[in-house]
């Protein structure tokens, strides 16, 4: 009997799997996949729960992989929800709940499609699901742990589909063939505190910070590339915490975030910011410390067999040929791309991370059909 992706989505939404809690979602998914003929292995690392499932022979000549996550972001203001955030209630054609869009519906749709496909028309190859409980968190022990375990245990994927929501407004309008890189820099400028009336006895860090932020944010990083919009540096905050009107502060801090395309690497951008900070420090006679956190490098999967395969399946089921996009934030595709070619395709993402997150019920069934067609065409 075919697996109902709506019912499976609802069951997953009822699992309170706020990062890093597993919440019963992977336990449920393992039971469903095992019953459907998949061999399942828990690949937990640290405080993170992960699940690897394979149908077919290990080391098959062709293995289609799917990557997704069952963890969700916090609820926010729970009182602002008009529907129970873990109730999976359906109203006016929408299924409500945290994770309904991002991305328990995607996981349910692929699991349902994969189980039906391998049991109806067993393919010459293997199908793998690599599902993490740490995509919305630090992403240190999630998909990376699954890929590390796969390397150690001679498991692999020939290609991979990531089921993140990819369409801005209507089903099938976009797939992701890459993502911008993301990095955050934290600056601390230290001078010397003093009386505002006697500036010669102090060293004000504020003018240095203003100059540094202006120089960094004024630079045009690039004009964009074939697959990416221009890179962007945004000043997120400048914090001094000085309530006095007659005191020159000793220290001030600022944070900037850069979303960068394939023109750059995080190392090159780090070197530029450090060089700029050193020049400003010398000019103003202050000390500037910089700390950088890199969330992911820019990458692109060149248009070709995988994007064509997915595009044709989407067009057949929706009547739309999806745009090849690289917009949005980061996803676990940034890890998978080291393992095999990867493309992302999923639902409309309008309500992800919002209060009253919801998914159109009809789209869940439509997504299952798209995923099943992708599998059928891949193994044809």
Summarize the structure.
This protein has 380 residues and is of the alpha+beta class. It contains nine helices and 19 strands. Helix content is 32%, strand content 24%.
Structure explained in plain terms:
By secondary structure, the protein is α+β, with helices and mostly antiparallel strands. The protein has 2 domains: 5-179 and 298-379, Zn peptidases (Aminopeptidase, 3-Layer(aba) Sandwich); 181-296, Alpha-Beta Plaits (2-Layer Sandwich). Helices cover 32% and strands 24% of the residues. It is built from 9 helices and 19 strands. It has helices spanning 5-13, 25-35, 100-120, 143-152, 206-218, 266-284, 305-318, 333-336, 361-379, and strands at 39-42, 50-55, 63-69, 90-91, 94-96, 126-132, 159-162, 174-176, 178-179, 181-190, 194-195, 232-239, 247-248, 251-260, 287-296, 299-300, 323-325, 342-344, 358-360. The strands form 6 sheets. The protein has a 6-stranded mixed sheet with strand order 1-2-6-3-7-18, sandwiched between helices. β4 and β5 (94-96) form a beta hairpin. α1 crosses α3. It is elongated and about 80 Å long.
């Amino acid at each position: 009997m075919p697996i109902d992706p709506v019912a499976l989505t609802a069951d997953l939404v009822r699992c309170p799997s706020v990062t890093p809690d597993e919440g019963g979602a992977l336990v449920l998914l393992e039971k469903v996949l095992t019953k459907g003929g998949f061999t399942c292995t828990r690949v937990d690392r640290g405080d993170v729960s992960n699940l690897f499932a394979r149908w077919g022979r290990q080391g098959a000549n062709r293995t289609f992989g799917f990557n997704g996550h069952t963890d969700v972001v916090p609820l926010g203001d729970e009182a602002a929800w008009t529907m129970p955030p873990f109730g999976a209630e359906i109203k006016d054609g929408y299924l409500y709940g945290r994770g309904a869009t991002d991305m328990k519906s995607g996981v349910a749709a692929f699991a349902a499609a994969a189980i039906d496909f391998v049991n109806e028309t067993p393919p010459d190859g293997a199908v793998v699901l690599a599902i993490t409980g740490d995509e919305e968190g630090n992403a240190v022990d999630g998909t990376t742990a699954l890929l590390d375990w796969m390397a150690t245990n001679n498991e692999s994927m020939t290609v991979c589909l990531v089921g993140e929501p990819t369409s801005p407004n209507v089903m099938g309008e976009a797939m992701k063939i890459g993502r911008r890189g993301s990095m955050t820099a934290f600056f601390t400028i230290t001078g010397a505190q003093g009386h505002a009336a006697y500036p010669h006895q102090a060293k004000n860090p504020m003018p240095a910070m203003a100059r540094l932020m202006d120089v960094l944010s004024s630079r045009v990083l690039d004009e964009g590339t074939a697959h990416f919009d221009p890179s962007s540096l945004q000043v997120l905050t400048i914090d001094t915490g000085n309530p006095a009107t007659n005191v020159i502060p000793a220290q001030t801090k600022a944070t900037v975030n850069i979303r960068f395309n394939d023109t750059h690497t995080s190392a090159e951008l780090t070197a530029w910011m450090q060089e700029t900070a050193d020049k400003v420090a010398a000019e103003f006679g202050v000390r500037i410390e910089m700390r950088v956190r890199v969330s992911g490098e820019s990458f692109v999967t060149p248009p070709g067999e995988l994007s064509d395969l997915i595009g044709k399946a989407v067009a057949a089921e929706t009547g739309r040929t999806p745009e090849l996009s690289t917009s949005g934030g980061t996803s676990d595709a940034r890890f998978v791309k080291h393992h095999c070619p990867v493309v992302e395709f999923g639902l409309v993402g309008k309500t992800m991370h919002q209060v009253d997150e919801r998914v159109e019920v009809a789209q869940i069934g439509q997504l299952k059909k798209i995923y099943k067609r992708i599998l059928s065409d891949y193994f044809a």
